[in-house]
Amino acid sequence: MQTLTPHVYWAQRHADIYLRVELSDAKVLHGVKPTFLCWTAQGHGAKGDHDYEFSLDFLEPVKPEVSHRSTQRLVNVTVRKQEQRWWDRLTLQERKPLFLAPDFDRWLDESDAEMELQAKEEEKINKVSIESRIRKDPYLGLKKGYLFMYNLVQFLGFSWIFVNMTVRLFILGQDSFYDTFHTIADMMYFCQMMAVAEVMNPLVGLVKTGVFPAMIQVVGRNVILFVIFGSLEEMQNKAVVFFVFYLWSTIEIFRYPFYMLACIDTDWKLLTWLRYSIWMPLYPLGVLAEAIAVIQSLPIFDETRLYSIPLPTVLGSSFSFSFTLKIYLALMFLGQLVPLSDPTP
């Protein structure tokens, strides 16, 4: 197949040489030496589909890296000059090759190119100046330190719960279900009281999470822990306590270290995957376990009249707390639509 020469258009800046090759659907193979470019391609040019090639002996040395970008109509080639200066012409020989012509779309005179270069330098200086004027938070390190320690403490607390319950399950089997509250409650109380900070953190601007989602999560769990389990001795020996505590701790032993590492700008891909994957099955299961606990507590609240509000004789004897729990039960399932809060800066 005959090798032909394509039309080539050129322009320059102080640092670069721009070549525009009129060749569509090109497959490019090129090589460059200190002052010489040998460019070969197969594509569709002025004389149809052929092999096309051209060579240029540059006026001054250039860098060996040559970049090119092909489109359906042409190929753009960029060659970096070894020294940033303006050339009087492109090639070493004074006579311009017949296939070469100026690229007037990119053409600039030396004075215009200097103005363009000066404008870019001024833009860079202005950008640096603006960035330097932006006030950085002087307490950012302190905030991150506090959030790191908070997440670390919560991670250690829920890890203790998870490991303790797992070991007891292997040793005692199903018998461990019925004394979970008496064994684990103190640590769970501590962790859930600490979790109140997840409502306060967005209130004072430490994290970007909304206050309302964090409040739903913290209040929801504390109702189960302090009201359902803590105030009803009849609930403390039920197996549902085990499943609620175990699901909570399983979620948190992945969630808190994820946010802890985020405080020091560290991303562990496996932990990230586990945090967002395990959450999907465990969170609905946790809500289901909480709902079962609420349902099991309803007849106990009706029988004991605990937290019931006395009413005038005309309206009835009292307002049962179980009615409030039924409303809470409906809201609990709607709460699944609210994402977990992010205790990170």
TrEMBL record:
Associated pathway: Lipid metabolism; fatty acid biosynthesis
Main localization, broad class: endoplasmic reticulum
Taxonomic superkingdom: Eukaryota
Enzyme Commission (EC) number: 4.2.1.134
Known catalytic reactions: a very-long-chain (3R)-3-hydroxyacyl-CoA = a very-long-chain (2E)-enoyl-CoA + H2O; (3R)-hydroxyhexadecanoyl-CoA = (2E)-hexadecenoyl-CoA + H2O
GO BP annotation list: fatty acid elongation; sphingolipid biosynthetic process; very long-chain fatty acid biosynthetic process
UniProt KW Lipid biosynthesis keyword: yes
A Pfam family reported for this protein in Swiss-Prot or TrEMBL: PTPLA
Record has Endoplasmic reticulum as a keyword: yes
Keywords: Coiled coil, Endoplasmic reticulum, Fatty acid biosynthesis, Fatty acid metabolism, Lipid biosynthesis, Lipid metabolism, Lyase, Membrane, Transmembrane, Transmembrane helix
Membership in a protein family: Belongs to the very long-chain fatty acids dehydratase HACD family.
Protein name (Swiss-Prot/TrEMBL): Very-long-chain (3R)-3-hydroxyacyl-CoA dehydratase
